[in-house]
Amino acid sequence: KQWYQRRVRGITDNMNIALTDYISALSATDSAQQVTFSNLRNYLYKTIHITPTDNSKYTKITIKSGTMKTLDYVMVYDGDSVVTDTMLAQLSGTLSEQSFTASTTSGLTVALMTSKSDQSDGFVMEYSQVDTAGSSSTLSCPSGFTACDDRLYCVHNSLFCDGNGDCQDQSDEVQATCDGINNSDNSDNNDNDSNDDDSSDNDNDDNDADEDNNDGNNDDNNNDSANDDDNEKGTATRTTFSLTYVFMGTYFVKLFL
Predict the structure, then answer these.
(1) With contact defined as beta carbons under 8 Å apart, do 82 and 111 qualify?
(2) Each residue of 231-252: pLDDT tens digit?
């Protein structure tokens, strides 16, 4: 009982902190402004609503640069709700410069989500208001992820057609979608294999002894690759479950324990 009480108290304290740390609202003007989110703490879920000061204009944001570690995400929504409005982006890893413009005068919402270990460096974001509405028919996903058809979130490619519906609309179990992902992955692997073959041929021409060393290294690399695949699949699974709280209300407090 005492263990349970400490656990609940820790969850409650964390939720209270989330309501006060970082900013929760920004007002966009014609002149671009910048805000920096750095050293993002663990167990963070924070939403920032960016609205235009002129109610006839549209919010525009630009993710300038930054780094989010595995299982940490920056999510952008077209409107003021993470539940009912369309997600425009689910970003992780090294963040390249990307811009997003609201399709209505309701503004944009940025959600920050971090996991239980390590810390992301964070990112720099520029925001302003513009005269022209944005339009987007795609969801921007991290490398190795694909958007569900309902565009609620992105799922790791390894979870498509695995017998479990990870998308709410079950679109990750549609065979045609899986075939497209597999073809893309195979194409990338073939390109890498071709590069490896060329490198191996050059090494063999240089020295027979190098060939033996390369064979040993290739065996090690294959083992490392297998371990990386296993780790990646585990990470992908955890990613899908950690994202669930965004759409299932208070369940998020249980998924990070």
Answers:
(1) yes
(2) 444 444 434 434 444 433 333 3
